[in-house]
């Protein structure tokens, strides 16, 4: 970089440090865009590092937090290479960051920003953890820092179980065995990929929490939730009779004909494909053969780990904080309940809770429309297992979202709550399917998330890695959702949501 460009970068740092409060965000955005672009360092990045570090000594702690976050972004921009030139330049000032961390009275936002920055230097793990522990941090924050500074042990890999923090997980013997079984099946390259995905998820949560804090103040942390006893993850016994009220709407995913109840299964009236039912869950993912029917499905249910319990109690609230920018608690579970109660307005026909998960909001839908009208649909057996334990009167269907097993114009309403982003690539097809199965006048009620307009926060949103998904979390542009809804014959009746939440209700056109 030439002297003129270096001078221009220094001037941007000065402009941010000296900006009036109402102009600080603008000047910070200009500074970020000059040295960092969507996760990548720009040509100005390397020579900007000394100016950023020097500015730490002449600004207040609020803007120090912003500078520290930017230094962390630059260190992360060469991930997973730990010794790239930009990362080395940022790490060269480690002593300065540690002195700042040890300073009394720096406050929670700057402490969190320093945790994010220091998470990128595993070679200095012991020194960093010693300094961090001296601040008596929240155990979740410290465990994320500890994991970010860890290196993969190929002989005893600790994979998964990092979201929302390693400290949130307590495993019983069955769950440890489950982990060991899938980890052993990974190739060396798959181990590396899984480890890197975990690391990016940890950095994304650490960064999102820290950046929100330096912009808005101390996060409003909800009390730690206890995971219910694993025994509650058992679906109660129930057979095909639970689906009797809904067979008129259900269709065979092979030939699209009606289904009728049989012994432990539903059978297609057209192609004779048989689908097992166990614990009140109908498996429409594949027809049952003569040798793999209900008994096989019951065995599969008995082996399901209790991820659904953990998701409901711990993982979901944390996901809303990252995806919805909800670190201040602007959206509460009561707010979600209220929206469903006010906006789900079914016409004649069953109500489908699409991607119902572990059933917390299925219960709210059941309260609003009646459990006798409700069908829960999800592609995850662990989630449906928990849902059935919670809602023994609600039948559940194991099926995907992009090819819904219902007849045209047969459903009175569809709810899809905190789920569209989990099958981002299938969302246009899923919305088209909702339009197909809804009766005219029926509602489609959604809660999902949009991409942040702030490129820094958007980077932290994207860092979240879903299990079994390539790449990071992808969120929506509201315009895309509206276009897909219009194409499906649905008209948006209401749209709202603070932060990066999207609450939306659409109605099937007459």
Give a brief description.
This protein has 510 residues and is an alpha/beta fold. Helices cover 45% and strands 13% of the residues.
Notes on the protein architecture:
By secondary structure, this protein is α/β, with parallel strands linked by helices. The protein has three domains: 3-216, Leucine-rich Repeat Variant, CATH 1.25.10; 233-302, no CATH class; 307-508, Rossmann fold (3-Layer(aba) Sandwich). Helix content is 45%, strand content 13%. It is built from 19 helices and 13 strands. It has helices at 3-18, 24-35, 45-55, 61-76, 85-91, 94-101, 108-118, 125-133, 139-148, 173-184, 188-216, 294-302, 307-323, 333-343, 360-369, 381-390, 427-437, 455-462, 478-487; strands at residues 36-37, 40-41, 259-261, 265-268, 274-278, 281-283, 351-354, 374-378, 396-398, 411-417, 438-449, 490-496, 501-508. It has an eleven-stranded mixed beta sheet, with helices on both faces. A two-stranded antiparallel sheet has the order 1-2.
């Amino acid at each position: 970089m030439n002297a003129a460009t270096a001078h221009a970068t220094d001037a941007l740092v000065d402009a941010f440090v000296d900006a009036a409060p109402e102009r600080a965000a603008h000047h910070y955005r200009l500074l970020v865009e000059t040295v960092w672009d969507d996760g990548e360092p720009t040509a100005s990045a390397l020579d900007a590092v000394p100016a950023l570090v020097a500015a730490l000594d002449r600004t207040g702690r609020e803007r120090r937090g912003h500078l520290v976050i930017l230094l962390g972004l630059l260190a992360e921009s060469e991930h997973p290479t730990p010794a790239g030139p930009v990362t080395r330049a940022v790490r060269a000032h480690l002593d300065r960051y540690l002195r700042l961390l040890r300073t009394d009275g720096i406050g929670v936002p700057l402490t969190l920003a320093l945790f994010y920055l220091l998470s990128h230097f595993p070679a200095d793990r012991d020194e960093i953890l010693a300094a961090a522990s001296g601040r008596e941090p929240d155990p979740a924050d410290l465990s994320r820092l500890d994991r970010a500074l860890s290196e993969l042990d190929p002989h005893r890999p600790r994979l998964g179980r990092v979201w929302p923090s390693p400290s949130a997980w307590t495993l019983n013997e069955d769950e440890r065995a489950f982990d060991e079984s899938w980890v052993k099946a990974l190739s060396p390259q798959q181990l590396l990929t899984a480890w890197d995905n975990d690391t990016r998820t940890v950095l994304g949560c650490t960064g999102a929490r820290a950046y929100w804090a330096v912009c808005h103040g101390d996060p409003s942390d909800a009390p730690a939730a206890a995971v219910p006893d694993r025994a509650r993850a058992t679906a109660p016994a129930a057979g095909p009779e639970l689906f009797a009220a809904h067979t008129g709407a259900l269709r065979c995913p092979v030939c699209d004909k009606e289904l009728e109840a049989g012994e432990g299964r539903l059978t297609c009236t057209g192609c004779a494909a048989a689908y097992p039912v166990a614990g009140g869950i109908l498996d429409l993912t594949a027809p049952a053969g003569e040798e793999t029917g209900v008994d096989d499905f019951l065995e599969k249910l008995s082996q399901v780990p209790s991820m659904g319990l953990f998701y409901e109690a711990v993982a979901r609230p944390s996901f809303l904080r990252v995806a919805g920018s909800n670190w201040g608690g602007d959206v509460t579970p009561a707010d979600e309940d209220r929206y469903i109660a006010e906006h789900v307005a079914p016409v004649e026909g069953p109500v489908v809770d699409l991607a119902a998960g572990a059933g917390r909001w299925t219960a709210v839908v059941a309260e609003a429309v009646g459990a006798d009208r409700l069908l829960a649909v999800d592609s995850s057996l662990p989630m449906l297992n928990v849902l059935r334990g919670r809602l023994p009167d609600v039948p559940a269907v194991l099926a995907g979202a992009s090819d819904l097993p219902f007849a045209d114009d047969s459903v009175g309403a569809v709810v899809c709550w905190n789920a569209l982003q989990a099958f981002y690539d299938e969302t246009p097809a899923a919305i088209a399917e909702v339009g197909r199965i809804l009766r005219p006048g029926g509602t489609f009620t959604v809660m999902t998330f949009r991409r942040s307009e702030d490129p820094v926060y958007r980077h932290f949103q994207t860092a979240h890695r879903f299990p079994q998904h390539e790449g990071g979390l992808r969120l929506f542009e509201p315009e895309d959702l509206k276009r897909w809804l219009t194409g499906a014959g649905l008209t948006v009746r209401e749209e709202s949501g603070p932060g990066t939440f999207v609450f939306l209700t659409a109605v099937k056109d007459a």
